[in-house]
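PROTOCOL LOG
Step 1. Enter all chains and additional molecules of the complex.
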Amino acid sequence: MINIRDWRHWIIPAALVLALLGVGYWGYGEYMSRQRLQNRAESQYQKDFYELSWHLDKISGQLAQLMVSSSREQNVLGLATLWRQIFAAQANIGGLPLAYVPLSKTEKFLSDTGEVSFALLNRTAQSAQGLTETDIQVIDKLYGRSKILKADLGELAARVLDRELSWTQVEVAAQQSGRDLEDNTIVNGFELMEQKMEEYPEINLDEEFEQVRPDTKVVRSDQKISLDRAKEIAHNWWFPPGDLHKASLVYEGVGDIPTYGLEFAPQQGESPVYIDISKLDGSVVWVMEPKSVADITTDLSEGERIAAAFLEKHGFADMVLIKVEQEGNTGVYTFVPRQGEILLYPDQVKVPIALDNGEVIGYEGTPYYMFHQRRQLAAPKVSEAGIRKLLSPYLKVELIRPALIVNSWGNEVLTWEVRGSFDEEKFVIFYNADTASEEDIVRLTAPPKFAFSVAG
Amino acid sequence: MDKKKTWITVGVILAFFITGGILLKSGGSSYAAAGKSGTVSSNDVYVLSKIISGEARGESFVGQVAVGAVIVNRVKNSNFPNSVYGVVFEPGAFTAVSDGQYYRQPTSSCVKAARSAINGWDPTGGALYYWNPATATSKWIWSRRIVARIGKHIFGL
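Step 2. Run joint prediction.
Step 3. Record the structure below.
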């Protein structure tokens, strides 16, 4: 018979109660900690949301200001301010948990307005005239859209404040329901905005404004080569004759270029080789051989010679090295072809070389495949001497040569390429060969590197 | 009950709670480094390799490069943030970031995949989205135009 007066019989129940209290205390601590984190996340989202609303209001006002201002100088300042505000609004959108609410129309409005303001800024800063009538029309259309966004976002902001709705609730609900959210004020509010924007007519941005993505300009055959033929081509291109690697199809790409994605299984512990072959004419688009690279024994310039020899072997004539990067123990060499003296920057190929044994471990020729062709290029209107006169005295010039590049609007334009440095920063500046305006300036200095550790 | 059994029972129960307590305390350290470690460098490659590792750890190398390429394509697209970390840390965009998988050490295969993706290799031909058909239920993601199917992911525009 259990005698409850005997203290030893209370040990187990006491231990259990203590354990329960302990767990309860821990659980409360965890709950409080979670609340704090949730509040922290919520404050971040709230801040981004209100800033977005505030920036949209400013953007709307700035667009209106551009329409009433008549001086070119004010236009330039106004456009620069508009561009900055768009950038800030985009950063705000990037900080909201909107992965569950596709905001493509709103984001498109911001990127459209950003492109327009950049294009106009470019033009008005360099020319004598201010905004033309057509420009004003486009700004007017953008202004109309900004009014919708501003109104709806303001309303949503009021409701959020009023009903104390929470962004973290949006996140949690989304994660639980697998990304399909129903019946949620914040999400509905944004979706409504999206719908209204869709009802608004598409703005037909002039060719001048629209960032054109260059199509596959080269005319390829209409035929489709067979899978077996593709395997044969890939095998002969990469492996030495008599080699026995076997190919299998991993995927068929239907993106920019219709391709067969092939994998050559490794023999004896090497790595597999992946080769993408174009279905249109059997050209090799790219190759990847992800082998582990040991310590460096080959130096970078030797690697360059190996890469150049590789390209020559595969029929790439007269290629010029434009960039070398060393990542870990691999050297990546970027080459472009030449037409006469003119370097063709859009037609790039990259060749990575493993610097432990000088092996070619890949090939990236998508831009070359998509854009390389014989072009009609007029002689430059501005001479090399003319360009030298324009250069900043602070630039220490290393070389000047003609080059064809793609400008920020996706158009190919003939330029003079100037490579130089200032202090420790290296630059490449491209001057338009007809107008001598600076098309692009690229900073070549590599970002600071740091080492980090890798598992297995 | 006899005394010995009582003490054994008490001992077992206490041991249970004590072990439980220790495990709870040390919760986060299950991601301890194991295996050979190497060093790589550069910020963007680092972030990209971690996200690839979190999202596509078990995929083939091509699948990993494809995931990396989607992120690189987003960086280049004006509708998404303009940096690798901007794209990766967009709230809710990647489950690996939301559930902490991102914070594990990347594998060396993922680092190679990240380097290839940043250098321009793109098995997807320009895709901006990817999803796992077995787990994705959102109607919206399925409305994207499909451009490739690699491993267990579908890639779309």
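Step 4. Note key features.
The longest helix of chain B spans residues 3-25.
Chain B is about 50% helix and 10% strand.
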